[in-house]
Amino acid sequence: MRPFDYARPATREQAVQLLAATPGRAAVLAGGSDLLALMKDGVVTPERLVSLQGLQGDHTLRFLRYTAAAGFRIGALTTLADLAASEVLRLEHPVVAETAGRLAGPQIRNVATVGGNLCQRPRCWYFRSGFGLLAAREGASLVVAGDNRHHAILGNDGPAYFVTPSTLAPVLIALDAEVVLLGPQGERTIPLEKLYRLPLAEGEREHDLGPGEILTELQLGPAAGRQVGTWEVRQRETLDWSLATAAVALEMEDGRVKRARVVLGQVAPLPWTSREAESFLTGKTIDEAAADEAAKLAVQGAKPLSKNRYKVQLARVAVRRALLAATGLDREL
Amino acid sequence: MVETSWPKAEARRLLGTRVSRLDGPAKVTGTAKYTYDVARPGMLHARLVHCPHAHARITKLDVSAAQASPGVKAVRVIQGVGAEIQWAHDEIVLVAAATGEEAEDAARAVVVEYEVLAHHVDDLHLDQAPETRAEEEELAGEPEKAMAEAAVRSKGTYGLPVIAHNCLEPHGQVCEWNAAKDTLTAHCSTQAVAALAPQFAERVGLPAGNVHVICQYMGGGFGSKFSADRWGIECAEISRQAGGVPVKLMLDRRAELTIAGDRPSAYAEIEVGAQADGTLTAWISKSWGSGGLGGSGRPPLPYVFQIPHRRSVHHSIPTHTASSRAWRAPNHPQGCYLSMSALDDLAARLGMDPLAFVRKNEALLGPLAKTYLEELEIADRLMGWSARWKPRGGGKGPVVRGLGLSLHMWGGSGHRSSCEVTLQPDGSVEAKIATQDIGTGTRTVLAIVIAETLGLPLEEVRVQIGDSRYPASGGSGGSTTVGGVSAAARRAAVNALRMVFDKAAPALGTTPDLLEAVDGSIRVQGEPGRALTWRQAAALFGRAPVTATGGNPAPSGSGELELTGSGAGGVQMAEVDVDRETGVVKIRKMVAVQDCGLVVDLKTAESQVYGALIMGISSALAEEKVLDPVTGTLLNADFESYKMAGIGDIGELVVHLMTGPGYDERGVIGLGEPPVISPAAAIGNAVANALGVRVPLLPFTPQRVLDALESPGRGIV
Known about the structure:
The structure holds 2 protein chains of 2 kinds.
Chain A: E1 5-7, H1 12-20, E2 26-29, H2 35-40, E3 48-51, E4 64-67, E5 71-75, H3 80-85, H4 87-92, H5 94-102, H6 106-111, H7 114-119, H8 125-131, E6 136-137, E7 140-141, H9 142-145, H10 168-174, E8 178-183, E9 186-191, E10 214-220, E11 227-234, E12 242-253, E13 256-265, E14 272-273, H11 275-281, H12 288-298, H13 310-326
Parallel strand pairs in A: 1-3, 2-3
Antiparallel strand pairs in A: 4-5, 5-10, 6-7, 8-9, 8-10, 11-12, 12-13, 13-14
Chain B: H1 24-29, E1 44-50, E2 56-62, H2 64-67, E3 72-77, E4 84-85, E5 91-97, H3 100-109, E6 111-116, E7 133-134, E8 138-140, H4 143-149, E9 152-160, E10 163-164, E11 172-178, E12 183-188, H5 193-204, E13 211-214, H6 230-241, E14 247-250, H7 253-259, E15 262-263, E16 266-274, E17 280-289, E18 309-316, H8 332-350, H9 354-360, H10 369-383, H11 385-388, E19 399-410, E20 417-423, E21 429-432, H12 442-454, E22 461-464, H13 481-507, E23 515-518, E24 521-524, E25 527-533, H14 534-539, E26 546-552, E27 568-579, E28 585-595, H15 602-621, E29 652-658, H16 679-691, H17 702-710
Parallel strand pairs in B: 1-14, 12-13, 17-18, 21-22, 28-29
Antiparallel strand pairs in B: 1-5, 2-4, 2-6, 3-5, 7-18, 8-18, 9-16, 10-15, 11-12, 11-14, 16-17, 19-27, 20-21, 20-26, 23-24, 24-25, 27-28
């Protein structure tokens, strides 16, 4: 077994210090459902694990707090099962609770955390086979030349072709969620959307977490009358990764869309916001024709690889169905 | 007189009833110990070093760092400098250490350098293969002439990829060499306890009798576990090298999926022709596929239907992948899927209901025709086919529904087997046989046969299996086990009972031919009052146990009827929903109607069919080995990306076993293979019925379904 340090600090600041002391060579351990598998497969080889499970008192990160005015503050160690079971979340943001409850299987949901879900590594089979996150060999992408049926159709100008794995992220981004990051320089709060970035070289990460920085909290405002819908195309009923997802949140005024968020998952290296669909929808009333047009616009810029053209159709259908679900039109069809 | 033949229906007490498997409680409580669970005192743990390249030559090999690694007790070079490696993940070095972690560290310390050579892993494109091997053409009648004269013709391309066995327990063993006695004890996860001992013996240079193979419980084989395997031999050798300490080597999931066998692919261009009334006249097929370097098996084409004018050619494509192994009903699922798809497409062209199409061609169904027709009638009722079938296509909205059917056949005659039954003075009964229960219920079947024969409650019979020192029995393959072991056990128990009757007759003042064994007693027929308890009868032998033996097949010249038969036919129907916007296929319902002769245990027999349906559904919806064209390595060597159907994906399963007159008298016929043959074919036809478009290539993923909808008839690209 490759040796590593294991630290179980009691305070958040200690955790940050322990991570910052070995930048790039330490990893945060939350539920471990992704990290431990990556370590066993030798895909990642951290020299230090900093567990957040030992945080004490006010420092603990497993909490879900709600106020009518500010909405939710959800600690990074809150499990997916906690989210799925939260009565207040089910009432305020049923789509979030349902998405969490559909993820993976019960065993995983019982240990996997919100923070872990948002920071998990891509499922790209080249990455998981040890070819690196960008899977390049002699300057050429194995993904482009190889079997890319599950890879990106958007945001795939390279060198990253993997797809973002979280199905929770698109719906949270559509709801304008923010995340709190704690690092050696203190705390900062950023839109969840800004957490994700495209790595440009091997060794770069797909998140914006700096050395020693920890995602401590998810902040999610009240529903505020938004119409929210998601659609996930998944081959198997359980224990499967989505082939494409879409999440939409619509702020309505007099039956028209005042502001739209349209976010796709599993189609690009990061959760993919479709500005084209969002601006098209603004000012519209949603009917089937509008949903069709928005869905088309959402995949207009898609550039399928050799084996994943079908995903363009899946993404389009996901957006269309998410819109119809958000507006209740799916029940009338 | 005790008859050897199976008891008549009215006399059966246990045979054909629903008996829960005897080792169920041990399995669910974890007291059952699989090979993976075996832990011996002082046992070392071994790990393999695998080759990362699909085709390469070893140019440098240095194990010195591994030998010096903490905890390491022995290192063996399996393939050294100069060796040409023919597939990715092939075994290069084996290390044994005190712990698995230490062995992993040592394996990582092995330095191997390779000259990478060109590889070929594409089995889909026959015209792009650098090398192909043509099999002998099969020809009957005048296919070209008959095809030209056919009123209706259908031409298509169909195919199935390479899939894995996915045994939950991977291949592996614990080997213990005894240097003082020159013996080897091997705990193996195997389908062939008896045959493995001589395999090990020959390869490690011991007399066969010095090798003892044990497998009490095993977690799945499906045809992939008949060999001692190179890693098994190396495990034995490293135990010897380490001074005779036991060594455990189990493959990890990546190795299991990559090198422990798989099912060959099969693709075919098929043209089939019929008269206007649907009578099949002509078949012309060109098929190809791969099962690794050794080529592929040959799917039987056309399958089931004996079309009078037919030509089939087959080519094997050698690929740089580990060799395929028998996979449940070798070659039949391929032959079935290819044939039933082509015939269903023809029926659609004819505008015929596939059920009517099969009935129209009754004369081509061979010796099982009557069975098929009876089964179709039952399947029709269970599925509601006739009431609900509609021509291909149509439907409103994104989700459309379809029905499909398929027919299959298998042999399943009992293998060579011998069994001994020992009666102790206290009346206890113990049977020994070197068979193995690969999850099918073999233990339970043996207990049922012996208890039925001796008139004892099931729990009075102790069954000992899974040990090569017991009387020899065949490997569990080809659906031959249940016939072989039940016939051998029946004969052994009958012989035991005859001995008991001979002893009991004088004590009861009668002759042996007037005795019967009922409800734990030996009594005079028709006079329940004149009886000995089983225990009293056993005590007549004095203080020593007595043993009777029996075997399969029947002793030559004995004039005995065989207790096992051959030739099982089955029919399956599938109902699916397909979302034509997303390409997601959902199974609504599967109906399997199956013949297997005399059923020993209805519950475990049905369980076999349920399992086969699930395995077949999985192959239809999800399974394929994905090889990277650039590196030649397996990209989905884990249960996350090598997808299998889960409980939510299988729909409603309805199983009906054909029993009673016309079936029971054929004797016991194996059931492991037949029900796994048809599911993918039936599902494929249901998908075509739903969509109005054939999805030619398995598995029916959203990608394949959407591709087919976009370019119908495009075939294989």
